[in-house]
Task: structure prediction
Amino acid sequence: MEIVVLVKQVPDTESLIEIAADGVSIKKQDIKWVMNPYDEIAVEEALRIREAQGGNVTVVSMGGQKAIETIRTALAMGADKGVHINDPAAEGSDALATAKILAAACKEIPFELIIAGHRAVDEDNYQVASGVAEFLGIPQISMVIKAELHDGKIKCQRTIEGGTVTVEAGLPALFTTQRGLNEPRYASLPGIMKAKKKPVDVKTIADLGIDPAAVGAANRKVKIKALNFPPERQTVRMIGGETARDRAAELVRILHEEVKII
Amino acid sequence: MTQGVFVITEQRDGAFRKVSFEAVSEGRRLADGLGATVTAVVAGSGIESIAGELEKYGPDKILVADDPVLADYTTDAYTNVIAGCVQTVDPALIIIGASVQGKDLAARLAARLDAGLAMDCTAIKLDNGKLTFTRPMFGGKIFADVEIESVLQIVAIRPNVMDITETSRDCVVEKPAFQVGEVKTSVVEKSMDTGDKVELTEADIVVSGGRGTGGKFDPIEQLATALGGAVGASRSAVDEGWRPHSDQVGQTGKVVSPGMYVACGISGAIQHLAGMSTSKYIVAINKDPEAPIFSKADLGIVGDLFEVVPAIAEEVKKIKS
Result:
């Protein structure tokens, strides 16, 4: 099975995010950059499928020079090769433009299956994977917690509110991962050593036949006008009282009489 | 001519999801400001009889797409049908609820229609005919104000945030001709939670437990039941295997915006705060007075959750009886 995994480098979820002086971007220094947690699950799933069925796992990522770290992480986990779309003209692309670029990269790789995280935990757009599927004209199944392949088809259990549904599609197809699908492995030391020798193709958007006038920060359809911190809450009101029962009674009285939520 | 507001509603097994009413109400509010009309669409199988339930939220027109193929949601069938309706109506703005289904559909639709999409928005502002959408990023650590520069704008609204408003208005119901087109996916099985469990992302009250529970969620469940709310969990509680992934609230779990969020034995790691900071009212119970959760809470109690939480449940029952 030829599998493509889409990965993105994002700030670690424990990072404190600060707004840069321009007011529309974040301060990029002092942040620990990691592979998007849902993409780790995607890499792991691809490796498990390859281990069961053979084939190749190619990781594709778009980003500046630093993004190579995330590709190397995936290679160290066991992926076979990488494609790094590194082009200043693509920097700051919105979700739709990013999907166009990634879809163009996927077209150059023989694939039967594409796996991606259901969202990246930076912009939280939930859009790129769906866009890639649309531009490639293949079916998508999102937020998958179980995937089975047989007879040229994929059957995925996906989470919805209050339950799960199982969806079947013919290959080629794309699915996105949700927590619960697997526990991603850590890269082993030999894996890290091997990753250094694995091939990574570096591509510009011109290599992919993408018009620079359609992508990048200047051509975003969704323009960020301002970034703000969430509104501050008033200082917490601590409830005193001798016993747990006293404190509980006072809390419920406030919620009932003052806040009127109970 | 491109104009008007188009609202994509969501029903499951013949029942509208609450975010649909939020979306139609918000559509009406914006259309009034823009001097435009609201067209709402409902898709499904055997759902013609429920379409009228949308009327009281003020659409001018309701489109019903009824077909056995639409009985269960699949991305391709729904995208084909809804994109067809959008092309006929030619709206300037599409509003959809950012539920699991809504996010999936909105993303595919945006790519199909080459339209900018503002996902999971918590507010929409209309100023001199210009729309500004507010959306959390980095799991709610940052809120972005965004504008969409394509002719067609799509906004997915976060469930449970925007008001439901009733209004009386003349409304026509139409059954447009539509093409289901090529469908490459099919739903082969559904497994829904039994009982009357309240869905986390739609609950008015969420009671969550963290590491402080030590895995004993009985008091959390009892308080949730007393309050008529849903049970949530922190990532550490899920990582320990105490609760299923579907209960996780946080940056790598579900994002909730209930009327009240009760955090029990949760220290308040940054990635948990990201999943609940848009809650309208936050109560924290923790034995550590220095726990970061108190900096995000409206009301706090320092104490042992195994004493405090059951006592709260008792008091709630007293008031409700």
About this structure: The two ends of chain A are 56 Å apart (CA to CA). The longest strand of chain A covers residues 140-150. The longest helix of chain A spans residues 37-53. DSSP finds six helices and 13 strands in chain A.
